[in-house]
Design a protein that fits this description.
Translation Initiation Factor Eif1, single chain, globular, six-stranded mixed sheet
Amino acid sequence: MEEIPFRRLELTFHSDPGHAWLEVGVDDVDALGIAAQISTFSYMDHKGRLYLEEDCDAPLFINAAKAAGWDVEYTKKYAEDSFVRRLSHYELI
């Protein structure tokens, strides 16, 4: 098994009154080898950023990153009407 290089991530959890999403880079998801496991309940933008839904996809990412030895920290950002809801749903390319 190929070793995954160490990364230190400072991420943002975006939330609104109904849900929350962890913003991560596509390259980080690819490096962890979990792209095919991300659900269509997550979102993506055209800048290479994914917004992983809080219940399954965000924990999947966080657990994989920690298992790879990455340092993961995040801050929370709240909005009454989050822009994330207007993005495209995630699909594996």
